[in-house]
Amino acid sequence: MNHTLLMMGVLAIMLAACGQTPTEPAPPPTLSATVVPSAVPSPAVTATPTLPQVTVQLKTERVNCRFGPGTVYQLVNEISQGRALRAVGRNEASNWWYVRDPGNPGGSCWVSADVTEAQGEAEQLPVIPPPFVTVTKVDLRVEPNRILVGCSQFPQTVFFEAQVTTNGPTLLTWKWEASTGVVSDVGSLVFEEAGTQAINEFYRINGPNEYWVKLYILTPNEKVEQVNFPVNCTP
Q: In the chain, where are the structural domains located?
């Protein structure tokens, strides 16, 4: 009897196990990703300094406006009395004002504080350094500019002159070169103020040919001028 009951219990357990419906595994949890935008640094903003409002009134009938802060600089413009000029700078001593040139839109020049009166916070104007002085013009000529002589009349002497103009005080250095292959030593000339000075040289010509001579300005700025001259002869 006990054996029968045991067999019936085992059979019941097996039937219960066969009728059980398997459970599907739960899906993994979905992670919601939160995108955090990267921080973009704002560009640095440099404040542009504001110039003080300074007006320069002329005290004389005419005022010279110059290339630099001093009478040694080239005259740029003459301004008549009654004009109000906008000052945008000053020299270190505050005895010259850097103003907008009414005769040259977009340009500026220097007027003396002695013949003007500044209105506004002139001491707040920026200090403007003196300009770089340059050679502005070179006129080169040869004398004679052509030669026609008898073939037995060589050598001939040719003279050169260069009129050199600067816009302020500077040290000028230069050298000559001729088509014959001759090159001079470096020469120098002091300009104590703006103006024109002459450089002279001469060469001896030994026969007919097409000649040239060049003048090289080395300082304060580089310039090259050339002049040609024919030399002919008759038997």
A: 54-124, 135-234
**pTM, two decimal places:** 0.76
CATH placement of domain 135-234: 2.60.40.10
Q: Which CATH architecture has domain 54-124?
A: Roll (2.30)
Check residue 128 and give its pLDDT. Answer: 97
Decide if pLDDT at 145 tops 90.
yes
Q: If you write DSSP's letter for every residue of the chain in order, what string do you get?
A: -HHHHHHHHHHHHHHHHHTPPPPPPPPPPPP-PPP-PPPPPPPPPPPPPPPP-EEEEE-SSEEEEESSSSTTSPEEEEEETT-EEEEEEE-TTSSEEEEE-TTSTT-EEEEEGGGEEEES-GGGSPBPPPPPP-EEEEEEEEESSSEEEETTS--EEEEEEEEEEESSSEEEEEEEEETTS-BPPPEEEEESSSEEEEEEEEEEE-S-EEEEEEEEEEESS-EEEEEEEEEEEE-
Taking 60 as the threshold, does the pLDDT of residue 200 lie above it? yes
Q: What is the mean pLDDT of residues 30-53?
A: 53
- Report the range of poorest mean pLDDT among 43-47, 124-128, 137-141, 172-176: 43-47
